Amino acid sequence: MDYKTVLTTCTYCGCGCNMYLEVMDGRITGTIPCKTSPINEGKLCIKGWNVHEFVQSPKRLTRPMLRKNGDLTEVTWDEALDFTASRIKSIKEKHGNDSIAFLTSAKVTNEENFLLQKFARAAVGTNNIDHCARL
Question: Engineering a disulfide at 20: which of 32, 49, 123, 125 sits with its beta carbon 3.0 to 4.6 angstroms away?
Fold first, then answer.
């Protein structure tokens, strides 16, 4: 039996609570709050306590998928990123920058949310960005 704990950041909101994932034989089995974290001070909300459950869900997507001939098909990351970049480019050319909008999530870090707003404004050229926690 191989048991270890892995320090990580909760993905449910932008607070940045630290916790340890309990890993047994390569499978996540539980969550322990980090007692020394200045953010959550050894506490977790109910979502944080159960954050490990979605990681191993059989319904979770683990590879990119594109619709081909009406069916979702597993593709490589390069193909998915190339498709996305070309679609964003063609939509911008046809309808303008502000025809594109972004919705970000409370399930990523503040830094990831910051990166998406920078991408929306600097790369795409739109201010159309919102966050699900505000809705």
Answer: 32
Distance CA 26, CA 12 (A): 22
Q: Which helix (H) or strand (E) element contains residue 24?
A: strand 18-24
Q: How is residue 71 written in tokens?
A: 């069916």
Count: domains in the chain: 2
**Alpha-carbon span 44 to 33, nearest angstrom:** 6
- Name the residue with tokens 């069916």: 71
For residues 92 and 46, membership in a common domain is answered with no
Model-level pTM?
0.67
List, for residues 57-116, the tens digit of each pLDDT value: 888 888 999 999 999 999 999 999 999 999 999 999 999 999 999 998 877 778 888 999
